[in-house]
Fold these 4 entries.
Entry 1:
Amino acid sequence: MENTLISKEDIGRYHIEPALENKTEFWRKELSYAVRLGNEFKGKTVLTFQTSDGPKTVETTIWSLTDNYIHLKGGVTIPLKSIIEIHF
């Protein structure tokens, strides 16, 4: 399936699923940087994650990081195990 760019507000319309490969540990350092980028510099991160409709990409600010999720503005969460790719 084709990767689609969506808005942060549309994330809730999709059923988020685990990525084919769980890279949670690999992404931790990058996600910590993304949180700092968002909170200190108001910078955005391009994030691709897996859904039942295929990969979706969103450009957004990552506000916080927990053991299992990233939190975006507006209370949106994405499981770390669903992340496919991150770009700054």
Entry 2:
Amino acid sequence: MPGRTIAALLVCAASLVLAAPALALDIADASPPSGVVGVPYSYTFSLSPGSGSAGAKWSIDSGVLPPGLRLSSNDRTATVLGTPTQAGSFHFFIKVRDKPGPWVCCTEEDFTINIDVPLGIVNGPDLPAGAVGGAYGYQLATSGGTANSWTITSGSLPAGMSLSPAGALVGTPSQAALAKFTVTAADGSKAAAKEFTLRVTEPVLVSPPVTKPIALGHRFLVAFAAKGGLAPYTWAGVDLPQGVALNPTTGQAGGRPTAPGDVTITVQVTDVLGTTQTASAKVRTVTPLRIVTAKLRPARNGKRFTGRLVTSGGAGPFKLRLVVKPRWLRFDAAHGRLTGTPKLKPRKPRILVKHTAKGTRRVARYRPPVAATYDLYLVATDGIGERTTRKLKLTVRP
């Protein structure tokens, strides 16, 4: 009996030694990966091979899981899953309790899960505009990580442009466009996509104004016009003459010249892209229109008369008009010439009574005409609307 008892004890002891490693609880070594806010997360913890028994229960003993995640127990494994809602570093202890019985046992270990903010593209959606023929460069950037790849996933860039692997939009646009495209940036397992709009315009062009001459002492106002580029435009004068000013918003230039001659106005326009263009215009300043002829030579009755009316200053074309004139006088307005033959009527004859031997008779004595004076009113108008008038006297001698 003693020998049989000792043998039984030895068998029991041996069985205890063999069973003990299988019943001791141990969580397999683990390093939970980082997660991203808004991205579904899942990671499974498990018991080490041979440890514990069926029916183990898993729980969070202390600390907290990242908000949005939960622990799901499943016998020898437990899974942390869900969608993180908050970034940060979260430390917690996982506890495992074995199935109740004669070998009740438990263990716990600490873990950390880091939750990162999601990758995002911070630019846009409207990008700085470009100009046809102008060099373009713009760097895209991310938040929540540094993208290691950039790609166009839909749409297309304007002709002549490309997206570099580092996220830079570069090139020289070759034609006007309103491009819409989607850029995707990736940083390992994180990715972000965003739609952009990029406008490419024609180069800014300036149209100089059509100018008219002005009379000295008068004011002028001319307007330059711009198109292309990207409005609004900013105007600036380039060595403007004294007395000439420019409106930086509208492109209107004006002033009052102090001397006759050409006034040259040079302006520069700049659009919001920084492209510039210059243009010039000339305004001719003339002396005021005046009638030079102040007196006409006398005409002789019955003799052909010629004369000329002369003006100075102003700007052509000129128009001359005689408002009042005698019927015999002709006026060539194109050349300012006066021509005609005056015909004055003689005075009423004088009647004389003569007494002779034969009786009395009446005799009419011729009386020559007297000198006549006519008032002529000359109106002169030039091509810019200046007008002047002069009264002239024309005397016809008998």
Entry 3:
Amino acid sequence: MKRYFFDLVGRQRSEYDYRGRVFSDSENAQQLAELMALDLGIEPEGEWSGWSIAVRNAQGQQFFSVPVRPDCLAA
């Protein structure tokens, strides 16, 4: 089991995940990141458009990043 951290990364600032979540493999972590990006992409104001979900380990190493796309591009 490994702890994954899901940081929201924007152009001007970032929102860091200090708690993280434990998964048995990176595939489950990637699925959660994709779900989070889809959820943020349907915000009515589009405030998360252009952001991404950066998935990292406790040492800060980034495994992958998932972009947040506006609702019209998500489908």
Entry 4:
Amino acid sequence: MSQSDQRNELTREELYERLWSMPTTKVAAESGISDVALAKRCKKLNVPKPTPGYWAKVAAGQKPEKEPLPLTASEVFIQAAEKPLEKTLSLPETTEQLHSLATELMRALTAGKPDSQKHISVRERTLPEVSVTKALIDRATKSFHTILSGVEPLGIPFRKAQGSYGSGYFQKGHDRLYLKIEEELVEQPAQSGGSTRRQSWQWPTDCQVASGKLTFSLSPERYGLQKEKQWKEDDKTPLGELLAQIVAEIRRHYVEAQKRRAREAIEREKQRVESERHWREYQEKEAIRLEEERKRKHAEALEATAQTRADDLLKAAEWWRLHQTIVEFVSACEQRWRKDQNSSLTSEQQAWLTWARENAKAMSPLETGYPDAAKDGPFNPTAIPFGGPYPAKRDFPRPPTMPKPPPPIIQHSGSSEYVPEPKPYPFWLKYQGR
């Protein structure tokens, strides 16, 4: 494993341990990077480095104090969010200034118009979804203020919705929590001598009235009812306890989200390291394969050059034999004609003899400059550079009297036999009879 790979695999804690176990220059050298690059990495990961005189003190036998590794932002948040919370959170006093978003919520609820159940609903991008009667506006607003005061100091702000019709939400990183505050409807209590039975002409809501109690809901999705958690105010559980539970749940949700992301980051880092290891192994194997392929092609090129020169010798000898045979044949023809015609030749015979001798001359390898001892003879394979250039080849045309090369040898269970190459299947025959 290379030094650069070791550097990439170092975690924040491992880098800290190395920096405080050996001089910075040595850490940079082992990691394969410069001192400047190492300093930038330490700054990015918030890893403290020893002071310039630290190692001089160590060499002198002293034990200088080691600066501790500071917590990351995620660790600071988790540490603060996991601190014990009071079991009951009180609503702010009337004289206490409310959170700006709580003030905005109160203004929106006060300006709203009640519906048929006397509920005033708010669905704005900067606020949570709220639906209460006029009598509970103050309690709902102060409850929202208490929840904000319990989570925003930890770095969990209430964000504005991105869509045109959505409501606001708590957000840290990419995790959201939607808050909904409602006042439930309950069955209208029976009056003396009366009945609570609903008449056939009445809607179900006609027999329901506002409960005067708040219900809080938290959901990571705006319409994720299956994941929704609810807290209902009743006589046994006062509002202060509900608010403490809600704040604790928001904190717990984001603590779990941070821990989950930390685990995912570690898993991604492991996968990255594993992927890089596989990639390095693949590159090493591929480099070996390519080198072997180059060696094989080099050996084949040398062998092909030597074989071609040997074949050229055979072809040249055969062309020379044909040349000599034709020359002798033409001379015999001339002697016969002269004998039969008292040494006189016709113009047609003279033209034929000239044509035949020119063809015989063209067949002679000597006319092409063959052989050249430097270009057509043996060569030293070790003197040829790896990958070429390779010695030149004439590659004579094959004389018509020379046999064609045998078909390829195909191995069958340890034995060899000559098998002719299969002829291509005629395309026109493939679909006959269909």
